[in-house]
Structures are given as C-alpha cells and as structure tokens.
Specification:
Layout: E1 3-13, E2 16-25, H1 45-53
Antiparallel strand pairs: 1-2
C-alpha cells in the first residue's frame, strides 16, 4: 500500500491552532477515514507504520 503523507493543515480550536497531518492512499477512489490522536507533536515512524497497516 502506497501512502502520500506530505500534507498538513491547521485547525482553529477554542484553545488555539492545532496542526494535523493528512495521510492519503495514492490509489484513486473513496476510502474510509480514520482519525488518530497523539499527544506528541510530530509524526514518528511508529505512527506512519500504523497508518500504513490500516
């Protein structure tokens, strides 16, 4: 499974701005969305690996 992950967005919340990362399959079509919440402030290899497995 090939994943494209070079996309970030900022979401405004009552507590301030929150940056999030978007991981997408390269394959075209509709796919289910899965949200991950992590208290660390970066995308580390274990998170990328987990995303690629799901």
């Amino acid at each position: 499974m090939i994943i494209y992950s070079n996309e970030t967005k900022d979401l405004e919340t009552p507590m301030g701005s929150m940056c999030f990362y978007i991981f997408r399959l390269i394959k075209e079509g509709k796919h289910a969305a899965i949200l991950f919440y992590s208290e660390i402030y970066q995308v580390v290899y274990p998170i990328r690996r987990l995303v690629s497995y799901i």
